[in-house]
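To whoever picks this up:

The nightly regression suite flagged Cytochrome P450 as changed. Nothing in the input moved, so I suspect the structure step. Input below, exactly as stored in the fixture:
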Amino acid sequence: MSAHSMHFNRDIWGANARDFAPERWLQPDASHLEGYLVSFSKGARMCLGINLAYSEIRIALANLFRRFDLKLDGNMTPEDTERLDCFTTSLRGSGPMVYCSARRE
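Regenerated output under the current build:
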């Protein structure tokens, strides 16, 4: 089955299958959705670029943290966060303000 057919299947994702709704992954029963996320396909015909994509993400994040100093705005309060489960916290509103400045070598 193609990724397009799987990702827009209303039987799996519901009536809003075509909507960008990342909150569906935050539901208590969302673990069953992992098997239906086939961005890089699965099995013998899996995309060879998956490892390259993950490597590029790691390199981009490493460069971001190596080249820039990131500082959180000190105005956040505990009321700005919401605990979803034992491992996940959500930010209310637009999230924290992050100040970014280039590092001097």
